[in-house]
Fold each of these.
Amino acid sequence: MTARSAPDRLLAVLAAFDHEHPALCLTDISRRAGLTLTTAHRLVAALTEWGALERDESGVYHVGLRLWEVAALAPRGLALRQIALPYLEDLYEATHENVQLAVRDGGEVVYIEWLSGRSAVGVHIRVGARWPLHATGVGLALLAHSDAEFQDEYCAGPLAPFTPYTVTDGGRLRRMLADVRRTGVAVSDRQITADALSVAAPVRGPAGTVVAAVSVVVPQTDAQVPVLIPAVRLAARGISRALGWRPAKETP
C-alpha cells in the first residue's frame, strides 16, 4: 500500500468533519481519518494552532473560524451568495416558500444559500448540503446545461432513488434535460420527499455559461407551477445580470 503523503493526511483530518459529525474528539478524528492516534494528535494540534480547528472546554474539536474565512473567498461560495441574496429575498417575498441557491460539484449539487419559508413544506436542505443532480430542481437545471459528455456519463450511471417518484431511468432523464433546455426551467416533482415540488432556473455568469441554479420548493399538493415559473426565472435572470451576463441581443 502506498504511504499517504502529509497533505493527504492533513486533508483526511479535515474530511473527518461533516454535517453528521460536526464535533469530534481526537479518538473519533483518528478513526474517521484512518490515522494513528499519534499522527492525528500532531495534525490536529497544527490545525488548531492555525485556526482551522477549535477545541472546546470538553476537549471536543469543531471546524474553526479561520477555515470559514478562507472558504468565504471561494467565488462559487459566499461571494456568489452575496450577489444573489437580494434576488433570493425578492423571490422569497413573492412566494413565502423555501428558496435555494446551489452550484454543481461533480455529480452533486451543493447548496450555498437557503431561505426558509415560515409555513413552507419541510425540506432536507441546509447550507453546505449535497444531493445528486437528478433528484432536485437545481440539479436538473445544472445538469441540463453541463457538457454533453458529462450528461451522457451521468445518465448512464446508477441513479439513486429517494421516493417512488425519483427518476432512475437514464432515457427518461435525458428527455427531462432536453425539456429543461427548451423551456429554461426545471421541475422536480416529489423526487426527494413525497410532499414537495421544486421549480428551478439556471444562473449564468459573464460568459453565458451556467454557474448556479435558483429554485423555490413548495408543497406538491397545491403547487401552482405556472405561477412559480415567472418568479423563478426573474430571480435567475436578476442574479445572472448582477454577475455580468447580458443576453446576446443586448450591447454593453
Amino acid sequence: MSTASGASGDGRPPGERPARTAGALLLCRARPEAVGPAAPLLRERMVLAGAGAGWSLLVPGGKPWQDGAEPVDRVLTGWATALAVGAPWPVLALWWDTDRSGFVLASGFRRPVGYEWLADGTPVGEDEAMRTFAARLGLDPVLDVQALEPLTRPDPEADAPARVRGLLAVLTRAGLLLPAGLTPGEPADRLRGAARILPDAEQVDWAGWRAAVGAELDIVERGALGPWLRGPRARALAVAQLALGLPLTAWGLRHRGGGWIVAGSVLTARGALGLAYDRLRAHS
C-alpha cells in the first residue's frame, strides 16, 4: 500500500527501494562439507545447502546492503574474494537490485571477473569477461561459450533477472542445480526463508576467529592441501596473503567498504595463521 507522498507501506522513501529489494546468492564449486568451515569467516549469518553435483550455495540475510551502508554488488565482491582466496574452489556471487543484476567470479588470487545487466536486461559488461568466466570455471570452450554469448547481446524480451537465470541454465551442464524457491530477482528475506526449509540446510553463524579458522584448518590439513601448509611454498603464500590483506583492510576502512574489510581481514588472518602454523609444525 502506498501513501500519498509516494513512500512504500513500510515507511521507506522511494529512494531506498533498491537496497530493500536487493538479493544475492553465493555459489561455491565445492561440497557443503568443504564450504562450511570457511563460510563463518565472512561474519554474516547465512544458510548453507547443496546446489547440485559438486556445488554449494550460501544464502545471506542481506543486512549489509539493507542497512544502506554499501551496495549489494560491492558486498558480494568482497565476500566472494574472501572465500576464494586460499581455497581450491572458485566462488560465484550472483546479485541484483531494482537497477541492475550481475555476477562476480572469484578464484584464488586472480582478479575477480564480473558482468552486469541493467534492469531492462541491457548488457553493460565486456565480452571478454564472459569468456574469462567460462575458462576459470572450466566450462566447454565451444558449446558453453556459445551458450553464454546471447547474454552479452541486446534482447528486448529478457530483463536483468532473466539474464541471471540464463547464466544459471548454462551452468546446469556443469552440475549446478538451484533448489526450488531460490530464484534470481527475489529479495534477500524471501531467499533466506526458502533456503531454511531445504532438507540439507545448515545455519552458518560467526563463532569467533579461533573457532572459524580452527575448523577450516582442520578440514584443509586432512585434505589434499595438507602438504601446502608447511615449507617454503606455504610461507610464500602466507606472506602474499598478509601483503594483500593489510592494505585491502585499510582501503576498506577508508572507503567504508564492509565487503572489502571482511576480505582483507580474512586474508590477514589466513596469512598470520599460515606463518604461525608453519613455525609450530616445524618444531613439533
